[in-house]
Design a protein that fits this description.
The complex is a heterodimer of chains A (about 110) and B (about 110). By secondary structure, chain A is mostly beta strands. Chain A has a single domain, classed as Immunoglobulin-like, CATH 2.60.40. In chain A, about 0% of the residues lie in helices and about 55% in strands. Chain A is globular. Chain A starts with a strand and ends with a strand. Chain B is mainly β and about 110 residues long. Chain B contains no helices and eleven strands. In chain B, the strands form two sheets. In chain B, strands 2, 4, 5, 6, 9, 10 and 11 form a seven-stranded mixed beta sheet that branches. Chain B has a four-stranded antiparallel beta sheet with strand order 1-3-8-7, with no helix packed on it. In chain B, strand 5 and strand 6 form a beta hairpin. The relative contact order of chain B is 0.34. Classes of the chains: A mainly beta (about 110), B mainly beta (about 110). Chains A and B meet through strand 5, strand 6, strand 10 and strand 11 of A and strand 4, strand 5, strand 9 and strand 10 of B.
Chain lengths: ~110, ~110
């Protein structure tokens, strides 16, 4: 069965600093990978997704992620964090053989210092 | 507004009771997914319906059931509620594949 690990439960960065959120997955085949963001009291918004092709994926709000098969990782990055980026971030892997269900990591809560 | 509508937004009920959560998918989306988000279990897939038929099942308890109606809205029924069922329940919809759009969720509190 697939699984997703987000090693960092909390991360605090200063506004304007760069950000990297880690995600490691376990999946038998070529994974479908996703990053979602959840603001307090809100649903989940898709930031970006990887299905195949270029391993560097661009998303919304200036985020990007890099798929590294050898490391089973799909880390999320942003060059300069804004205070509005404070939220919880979830990495997920999709199983196309099980009705497109998503398996989520435990999430990383990002705090941004002024 | 994501286009996926969930009602009610908040629900407080007592143990042993039954509740129904409702989801209206985005216009044109045939698939509806239900997820549970709790502090101890995180985000977990419950069940998926596609055009009225159950397509996939995850960690859904036997006390829980769902259905999708001809107008494509879906309902998640939770019965014999326990304290541990307190969670955020999300609905998502998609036209095809993984193009999910999530609703803003129903927060269920069992007291």
């Amino acid at each position: 069965a697939q699984s997703v690990t987000q090693p960092d439960i909390h991360i605090t960065v200063s506004e304007g600093a760069s950000l990297e959120l880690r995600c490691n997955y376990s999946y038998g085949a070529t994974p479908y990978l996703f990053w979602y963001v959840q603001s307090p009291g809100q649903g989940l918004q898709l930031l970006l997704k990887y299905f195949s092709g270029d391993t560097l994926v661009q998303g919304i709000k200036g985020f990007e992620a890099e798929f590294k098969r050898s490391q089973s990782s799909f880390n999320l990055r942003k060059p300069s964090v804004h205070w509005s980026d404070a939220a919880e971030y979830f990495c997920a892997v999709g199983d196309g053989n099980a009705g497109n269900m998503l398996t989520f990591g435990g999430g990383t809560r990002l705090m941004v210092k002024p | 507004d994501s286009g996926v509508t969930q009602t009610p937004k908040h629900l407080i009920t007592a143990t042993g009771q039954r509740v129904t959560l409702r989801c209206s998918p985005r216009s044109g989306d045939l698939s509806v997914y239900w997820y549970q988000q709790s502090l101890d279990q995180g985000l977990q897939f419950l069940i998926q319906y596609y055009n009225g038929e159950e397509r996939a099942k995850g960690n859904i308890l036997e006390r829980f059931s769902a259905q999708q109606f001809p107008d494509l809205h879906s309902e998640l029924n939770l019965s014999s509620l326990e304290l541990g069922d307190s969670a955020l329940y999300f609905c998502a919809s998609s036209a095809t594949g993984f193009g999910y759009t999530f609703g803003s969720g129903t927060r269920l509190t069992v007291v």
